Automatic annotation (TrEMBL):
Protein name: Aspartyl/glutamyl-tRNA(Asn/Gln) amidotransferase subunit B
EC numbers: 6.3.5.-
GO molecular function, one term: ATP binding
Protein's job: Allows the formation of correctly charged Asn-tRNA(Asn) or Gln-tRNA(Gln) through the transamidation of misacylated Asp-tRNA(Asn) or Glu-tRNA(Gln) in organisms which lack either or both of asparaginyl-tRNA or glutaminyl-tRNA synthetases. The reaction takes place in the presence of glutamine and ATP through an activated phospho-Asp-tRNA(Asn) or phospho-Glu-tRNA(Gln).
Entry keyword annotation includes Nucleotide-binding: yes
Organism of provenance: Candidatus Propionivibrio dominans
């Protein structure tokens, strides 16, 4: 049976985090009543002229720096001509031959633990453009309404090379890009509100063939789960079509989450269909070196650099460092906790942030910025585990109290509830003697080779100390008493 290779490229529209539109002063706030955020420029009244938003250009420069792309000293806005009811001018202002960013790359990670692998996805370009309006088909008695609030919203379209070979790689790229644009503050990444939308260009070819197959573009994928499902279905459909003797026609398709299938929307246009030409109302965009360097000076430490620093400075595994740099908020929270707990607590801090705290946040549908337990509070808690003031089990109880907001710090809870760990060897030894005397049958089972009996004896000893004994000390002293050491 013939083997097939999947080829995927992604085009992403990231809505830029400006307060106003790219060529007018209208607000881009989400959720307004239809057509209340569309001024004369947005609705293309005769005689109006576009004025470029400097903030949108700043966002593009930040992105170019973040992906190590080439920021064009001169780029040009073009008119992309097509007719659609929600496009008031009859054309979209975009960039074509001379985009603001050329090249660049995004590193993706896949797998877990020791199986973590990396791959570099090359970018073709990133260009500035305006969004169109929105057609509304509901509650209009068979008619379509037009909302022009989105018309003119600033977008950065980010285009990859066809470097991905599976839906898993495509989703890993989309997640990495989503995290990056949020990290550098150019996009809020809200996929439900349309701030981050992906189109996947999918084709297949016989394994070993260099020539690309005919691609179909899956439009407007607004969730990572839908992206994976859509690509997987499209790949299987294309392979089945070719193997049945059919031919793939270049097309734009939509994904239906209810059926799990893609369906053709229209034949795919090529660049010449849009009749691009430089927009005569806009001067070329000139970005000098000084502007680029000033922007560079205000950039945050980037995810890969921070991840590498977490590995070198805190002796964390690559997997832990990757989890902690999944977002800037998580990374900042971790470092704030470390600053309070001490550098020696890096590994337990990482575990608490990525496991215990993450699980509780996920359960309650909260982001880390909404955590009831502050970084300082968590750092204080981890510090008391590291210095053996409390055990990890007791720490979970303290964490619950902190989450509920009853006390201000772990120390306060530990003192008021009498939770300090018993570390006095003499006191623990005395309790163990009592446990052994009261559980002679378990002792006999252990001596006959049943290791489970030892765990049961540890449980009895911890119960006798109300969980306050140091578990490691209990284990060591119990083995000594039983003649194992």
């Amino acid at each position: 049976m013939k083997q097939w290779e999947v080829v995927i490229g992604i085009e992403t529209h990231a809505q830029l985090a400006t307060r106003s539109k790219i060529f007018s002063g209208s607000s881009i706030a989400f959720g307004a009543q239809p057509n209340v955020q569309a001024n004369a420029v947005d609705i293309a009244l005769p005689g109006v002229l576009p004025v470029l938003n400097k903030g949108a250009v700043e966002c593009a420069i930040r992105f170019g720096l973040a992906v190590d792309g080439q920021i064009a000293p001169k780029s040009v806005f073009a008119r992309k001509n097509y007719f659609y009811p929600d496009l008031p001018k009859g054309y979209q202002i975009s960039q074509y031959e001379l985009p603001v960013v050329l090249g660049g790359q995004v590193t993706i990670q896949m797998g877990q633990g020791d199986r973590l692998t990396e791959k570099t996805i090359k970018l073709t370009r990133a260009h500035l453009e305006e969004d169109a309006g929105k057609s509304l088909h509901e509650d209009f008695h068979g008619k379509t309404g037009i909302d022009l609030n989105r018309a003119g919203t600033p977008l950065l379209e980010i285009v990859t090379e066809p470097d991905m070979r599976s839906s898993t790689e495509a989703v890993a790229y989309a997640r990495a890009l989503h995290a990056l644009v949020r990290w550098i503050g150019i996009c809020d990444g809200n996929m439900q509100e349309g701030s981050f939308r992906c189109d996947a260009n999918v084709s297949v070819r016989p394994l070993g063939q260099k020539e690309l197959g005919t691609r179909r573009e899956i439009k407007n994928l607004n969730s990572f789960r839908f992206m994976q499902q859509a690509i997987d279905y499209e790949v299987q459909w294309q392979i089945a079509t070719i193997e049945d003797g059919g031919r793939i026609e270049q097309a734009t398709v939509l994904f239906d989450p209810d059926s799990g299938e893609t369906r053709a929307m229209r034949s795919k246009e090529d660049a010449h269909d849009y009749r691009y030409f430089p927009d005569p109302d806009l001067l070329p965009l000139i970005i000098d070196r000084e502007w680029v360097e000033l922007t560079r000076a205000n950039m945050p430490e980037l995810p890969l650099a921070k991840r590498d620093r977490f590995v070198s400075d805190y002796a964390l595994s690559s997997y832990d460092a990757a989890a902690l740099t999944a977002s800037l908020d998580i990374a900042d929270y971790f470092e704030a906790a470390i600053a309070f707990a001490g550098k020696a607590s890096a590994k337990p801090c990482a575990n608490w942030v990525t496991v215990d705290l993450a699980a509780r946040l996920n359960k309650e549908g909260k982001e880390i910025g909404e955590s009831p337990v502050s970084a300082q509070q968590l750092g204080g808690l981890v510090g008391r585990i590291v210095d053996n003031t409390i055990s990890n089990n007791i720490a979970k109880k303290v964490f619950d109290v902190l989450w509920d907001g009853e006390y201000g710090s772990a120390d306060e809870i530990i003192d008021k509830q009498g939770l300090r760990q018993i570390t006095d060897s003499g006191a623990i030894e005395s309790l163990i003697d009592s446990v052994l005397a009261a559980n002679a049958a378990m002792v006999a089972e252990f001596r006959s080779g049943k290791e489970k009996a030892f765990n049961a004896l540890v449980g009895q000893a911890m119960k006798a100390t109300k969980g306050k004994a140091n578990p490691q000390q209990v284990n060591e002293l119990l083995r000594q008493k039983l003649g194992q050491e």
